[in-house]
Each structure stands twice: as C-alpha cells, then as structure tokens.
Amino acid sequence: ETGVTQTPRHLVMGMTNKKSLKCEQHLGHNAMYWYKQSAKKPLELMFVYSLEERVENNSVPSRFSPECPNSSHLFLHLHTLQPEDSALYLCASSQDPGAGESYEQYFGPGTRLTVT
Amino acid sequence: AQSVAQPEDQVNVAEGNPLTVKCTYSVSGNPYLFWYVQYPNRGLQFLLKYITGDNLVKGSYGFEAEFNKSQTSFHLKKPSALVSDSALYFCAVRDGESNYQLIWGAGTKLIIKP
C-alpha cells in the first residue's frame, strides 16, 4: 500500500449505531487530519494530530471522537450521528508544518458516510 | 476575515484550448497557496503550491499557477486542455493564524469537451 488509505470506502449507519473510520498513511508523515466534505461547500477541517497529539479541534460535535495511536494511524469514532452528518470524510497527512513552513497535504480516497 | 473565493462554479473549455481556473484570497500575513484536484470518487490530489519566490509556479500534469500579490489572486492555468483534466479543482490558502488550518475555496468544476 502506498500513500494514504481509508477504510471502509462506504458506510451506511443508523443514528443509534457506533462505527469507526480508519486511516493509515505510508508516507512517513507526522501530522494527520480529518476533513468533512459536503457537496458544494468548502472542506471543513475537523481534527488535526501532530506527533500523536491533538493540535486542532474545530468545534466538532462530541458524537465524533478522534484517536491517533501512532503517527501512521488515525481513527474517527462515530456514535449517535444525525442525517446531516452524511458526507465524504477525508483523511490527510503531511509533514508537521511548524512555524514559517507549509507542507502540502496528501489525501486518502475518503469514506462515503450515509446516516439513515 | 480570511477567505478564499473561486468565483466560477463551473468552467467549460474545448480540448486543446488554454484553461484558467480563478482563485482570489484574503489572508493575514504571507500567503501560502495551494491547488488541489479531485477526480470522481477520489480524494484530493496536490497539484502545486506557492510559498515564496517566482510568481509562476509549475506543478503536476502540465498545470501552472500565477501568484499576483497586488490582485491577491492565484489563478490555475494550462496551455492546452485535455479531456482527462475534467475534475473538481480546489484552491486553498494557509490560515495566517494557524500552522495547520487551510482555508478552502468551494471548488470549480472543470469540464473539457472533445
């Protein structure tokens, strides 16, 4: 496997279910991101981990819970979601930006989530 | 307020013609600018970035972008469009107040007709 992989690619869940999205990066990066992509809207950054520490949390509802056990893996745990949470969830990784630097992010193919 | 604008929801170009996808931005501090492309059912792919230096930046698949500081623009260009360039294109600028946050445009759908 190369690049950034995400599983599952598609997920349908009821509002009372608990599920998890998985992301793995094979690029040797040390920062990982979760984004939400909805149609015709800008990407929404949800969480950022750098060196396995959460560094950004953009007012995301608590029904979304991230986990970063090591620099190569990132999870998004989902519970009691709402229909408006249906979207494409993208994972990305990069070198840690640091002050005065900016590295491009590399994205996985995404998980298409449908909440019924 | 910091923002990125992609004024065109869709751009139609005939194959072989030059293409331009527009992006303007507003950000505090020095702008770090990016272009990404998204093909159907795929994640975003990095095309190119401007950090500093030459205003004309060359990227993947024959794309280039011109940074214009006075117009706060970073338009994506290609001299000769291919049908396979049809995709969704996103412009982004690094948030001047965060090392990690990118401010994204809403995307422009590029359609190249044979």
Would you kindly provide a written description of the structure presented here, covering whatever features stand out?
- The complex is a heterodimer of chains A (116) and B (114).
- Chain A has 116 residues and is mostly beta strands.
- Helix content of chain A is 0%, strand content 55%.
- Chain A has strands at 4-7, 10-13, 18-25, 31-37, 44-50, 53-57, 64-70, 73-79, 87-94, 106-107, 111-115.
- In chain A, the strands form two sheets. In chain A, strands 2, 4, 5, 6, 9, 10 and 11 form a seven-stranded mixed β-sheet that branches.
- Chain A is globular.
- Chain B has 114 residues and is mainly beta.
- Chain B is built from no helices and twelve strands.
- Chain B has strands at residues 3-5, 10-14, 19-21, 24-26, 33-38, 44-50, 56-58, 64-68, 73-78, 87-94, 102-104, 108-113.
- In chain B, strands 2, 5, 6, 10, 11 and 12 form a six-stranded mixed β-sheet that branches.
- In chain B, strand 10 (87-94) and strand 11 form a beta hairpin.
- Chain B is globular.
- The relative contact order of chain B is 0.33.
- Chains A and B meet through strand 5 and strand 10 of A and strand 6, strand 10 and strand 11 of B.
Please describe the topology of this protein.
The complex is a heterodimer of chains A (116) and B (114).
Chain A: E1 4-7, E2 10-13, E3 18-25, E4 31-37, E5 44-50, E6 53-57, E7 64-70, E8 73-79, E9 87-94, E10 106-107, E11 111-115
Parallel strand pairs in A: 2-11
Antiparallel strand pairs in A: 1-3, 3-8, 4-5, 4-9, 5-6, 7-8, 9-10, 9-11
Chain B: E1 3-5, E2 10-14, E3 19-21, E4 24-26, E5 33-38, E6 44-50, E7 56-58, E8 64-68, E9 73-78, E10 87-94, E11 102-104, E12 108-113
Parallel strand pairs in B: 2-12
Antiparallel strand pairs in B: 1-4, 3-9, 5-6, 5-10, 7-8, 8-9, 10-11, 10-12
